[in-house]
Amino acid sequence: MPYKILDKARLNSVTSKIVIEAPYIARNARPGQFVVIHIDEKGERIPLTINDSNPKDGAITIIFQGVGRTTCRLAALKKGGFVQDVLGPLGKAADFGRAGRVIFIAGGVGIAEILPVARYARANNNIVTAVTGARTKELLILEDEMRGASDRLFIVTDDGSRGARGVVTGPLKELLDKEAFDLAYCVGPDIMMKFACGLTKQYNLKTLVSLDANMVDATGMCATCRVKVGGEVKFTCVDGPEFDGHLIDWDEFMKRQKRFVALEKRAMEYHGHKCRMPG
Amino acid sequence: MREQKPKERIRNFNEVALGLTEEEAVAEAKRCLECKRAACIGGCPVEIDIPAFIKLISEKDFQGALDKIREKNSLPAVCGRVCPQEDQCEKVCILAKKKEPINIGALERFAADWALEHKVAKYELRTPNSERRNARVAIIGSGPAGLTCAGELAKMGYGVTVFESLHSSGGVLVYGIPEFRLPKGIVESEVDYLRGLGVEIALNVLIGRTRTLDELRKAGFGAFFIGIGAGLPYFLGVEGEMLNGIYSANEFLTRVNLMKAYLFPEHDTPVKVGEKVGVIGAGNVAMDAARSARRLGADEVSIIYRRTEMEMPARIEEIERAKEEGIRFELLTNPTGFFGDADGWVREAECVRNRLGEPDSSLRRRPVPIAGSRFKMALDTVICAIGQGPNPLLPRTLPDLKLDEDGNIIVDKLGMTSIEGVFAGGDIVTGAATVIAAMGAGRRAAAAIDVYLTQQA
Q: DSSP assignment of A18-78, as one string?
């Protein structure tokens, strides 16, 4: 049974939002979990964070950037269309409960990934501070939603077109110098997470990250998503995607993330199109 | 049996063994001595009435032969291809003592393929009794154990739903065994046959996550069968196994088989195979991985195995075919670490040579490293095929489910787990074994579920 796309919107030139009918997933999904989407018989299976779930409508919301062949194909689908397979909810859900003062750090499409966890933090009576960043104002997503989900929101852009000029570690460092926090939660490009974790480690602030690793089955079977955490091999799909960011071997993880880059480029060339983002 | 020639077949993923013609099948069937006390039946884990179906083939009643097989075996086209007949029915064939045993596997395959070719699908349902029909059974996992259990229960008249987490049904038959050994169309036909029996297949459902056992109970399922297989890949646990270019056999084969990476970039899932591939292990999975790597264009593919050819767990037929396809065998060799370049790609394996010592608990002679035998082997792709264990994902969601120390599910004599009404069988109970052993377990569990539900009614 294919899964219907109930709604589709374009958030900016690279980011799309789709709402998919998946009643069982909508009912059981928790913040921090993800689904695997397989568009059709020829498609790849890719993991995408569940950004919102609505059990009443039986719908889940996915926000993603069109960067590779599969996400570009997904971005080209329209409301009323279908994807062949959706599996989930997968991975461990956020379960930090009431930690106290929690600081969220997110970059790019990572903002969509922290949003449900920030809402979870609010619902568990934490004091939520958030730092979100993007390259430009145009690429900054979910500002209103993040404002609604946090007590304080700090925004940065690389070019200063919205909020302060700079990267997320700037305001993060200022805040860490001035205030005490009990927990940090960080999602964004790998390099951003690496530096944010490097910084919070200096302040001895426990930091959770959610990894976006390449997966196939996403049920613990193939081990392609393996990552070293505290010297132990973990599977991102079933042991994660949330891990203690201070324990991750970032350099190794970032090398592993490049395993299929050359082949992905070849696939894009073979199919002869750049990522187009129709509405 | 006719086969594709090695030089041709290493350039494609089409089936290697081409099957028997009608004349060949009838001639082979006529060799059968129709033993009164047929040892072959006892050699078959699901006790197919082998002499009876062979006699029907010799009489050219091919449909009759298939019906006879289907009395005991729901997946004949699969078993005819992948069963280790040489260790089972054919091993005890009386003719094996003097000359060649009857090629039972080829005949089973012939009967199944004949029906597929002639598009004959005959569904024989036993008279369902009304109490039974009210009880629904949930099968978790659509591999050989689950499909067999589903087919048996459907024939008894139960409503059966098979839940599968992947997007195709068949379990290891679709993600693990390559197209050239078991065409996916064959698996699909066998699953279609089960659908014809009334079995419902629910894909993309990970029990414990998408839906829970409790939810299914509330939805009216009265009994459960867990047949989730041995899905957790083992690694050697040596230095450098996180390097790029090192795959678990599960990953490599799933990319190639389920995701059809051999059709990349027409299909989107990539698999990267270098020039020098090392496959660690020497079971059927290792042979499948090595032969797939060869077909994907690797110049040199080596099976790296710590013991000798004698101890290799793979079927002899598969070892022979691998040799014909130019697979090298580095025997009595054990990798002790992997080393890579600055970008994190594997470049070489460090290995030791072994000699064989005293037999271990598996009754095979234990490999003992030879002092000072350390050497380097250049490799740019490594596939680890040293076995699989139980995937803990579902058991973790069922705290009352008793597991043994290896994480396999503990069952009683009837196949029931520590949770009432929940049965289990196949690799998740026994540890990794064969397709036919899993089917035997599925079949026995179906009988036990029938007894259980009849008592409950």
A: EEEE-HHHHHH--TT-EEEEE-STTPPEEEEE--EEETTTTEEEEEEE--SHHHHHHHH--
